[in-house]
């Protein structure tokens, strides 16, 4: 064996491949069939965050990835371990999150034979493949390296989505030999010169241009703001794109695109520059010229066909647009901007009246003495997130709102906050969610406590599923199965090694959030709906 070669189990080699791709933190739970991967994690010095449920591990990895731009990696065992990951995989797929779940599978040649193996499923990989971008089965060293290289190449150069890698249980312990894993290089791909000049010409000559920034715009925030300023183009964002541009900026209209709501001025825009977004629920004029930039060619004509399709990374596209110098000045479009701002204000009025004070107090506490760090707010498929944070929270600068959008799963907010905090230790992270959502992943308070995270978890307790209750009432249905018996939140938090606070006023909330950052364990901050309905919380 040459000096350049190494000998190790296939499970340990998986860890070496992850390390070669820059992975330094993974999430998961060890099991009978995946312990060889853990041998490799320890040998490589990869940190492992032990969650209390595999779904929590995937949500934490999702929050880690969204907040850092680095792929989130989860290690699960076979059978119930990896099937517990499916909802998180589907969520990451829907929100275009770079996520890799690695698990063992049935022994080689045993698929669909029902031989009674521990954790046996009829066809584990086939099932997961319906929720992930792809589920790949690799049975030897070369196949493992190829699969991981291919997945991480997609994370660098394609639409970032969820993948699953499965290793047969009879192969994961096998000793293999070979050279060090070698990652593949990212190919140079960018927008064509014609598309760049078409875009600039259309934007310069537009009367009512509008930028729609989706989740694919976050990594290009500074360039997005510079481009908007240079060409005097208002910016509206989707839920996933919220705060891609500073929401206090004069050209920011806010997060009003996508989701379940429309925005009337879309129909009056004559040129739309759509960046990293599906453009769902966007009613555009039939005469509008639509420039679409996306890494996924399938997205370039989905919902709204592109007049100018641009297959490229949003950041690369904007940087190259900015490099093209022109002596022509673009006149301010004050009338169009004021029209957009006025209609945006009308769309937000109700949300601001209900939710603005809550968010102002949380964000004020998070911003106070934040030092060089920024602020991340995580949400859930909760009423306070969808009806509140999206419209009422004004995110500044590099601040970020991380939530579940397209798949809209419950239980996301708390573990996502854990992942975001682990990825960004200097950043102040707050989880703000409803009581129904919190109970889906309440066990992850133990994970946050074990990780010594000074994490404020603000729960607005409306006694159950208030948004569903609203839906039932709107449909003429007497509310049914939407009320929850509430636990003793203080006792619950303390049982998990966390602090607990009950707040009744905006001042108490702000103080509780500020104090939580000074602690080395999470603080569960409980706000009852009866108190929240008082005048103190209304503008």
Description:
The chain is α/β, with parallel strands linked by helices and 539 residues long. It has 3 domains: 5-179, Thiamin diphosphate (ThDP)-binding fold, Pyr/PP domains (Rossmann fold, 3-Layer(aba) Sandwich); 193-332, Rossmann fold; 348-537, Thiamin diphosphate (ThDP)-binding fold, Pyr/PP domains (Rossmann fold, 3-Layer(aba) Sandwich), CATH 3.40.50. The protein is 38% helix and 19% strand. It has a 6-stranded parallel beta sheet with strand order 3-2-4-5-7-6, with helices on both faces. Helix 3 (54-68) crosses helix 13, helix 9 (221-231) packs across helix 10 (314-323) and helix 11 (334-367) crosses helix 12 (383-392). The chain starts with a strand and ends in a 7-residue tail after the last helix.
What about the largest sheet? 6 strands, parallel
What's the mean pLDDT score?
A: 91
* CATH homology-level superfamily of the largest domain: Thiamin diphosphate (ThDP)-binding fold, Pyr/PP domains
Number of E-state strands: 20
Structural class: alpha/beta
CATH architecture of the largest domain: 3-Layer(aba) Sandwich
Number of helices: 19
Task: Give short descriptive properties of this protein.
Rossmann fold; alpha/beta; globular; 3 domains; 539 residues
Quick recap:
With 539 residues, the chain is α/β, with parallel strands linked by helices. It has 3 domains: 5-179, Rossmann fold (3-Layer(aba) Sandwich), CATH 3.40.50.970; 193-332, 3-Layer(aba) Sandwich (Rossmann fold), CATH 3.40.50; 348-537, Rossmann fold.
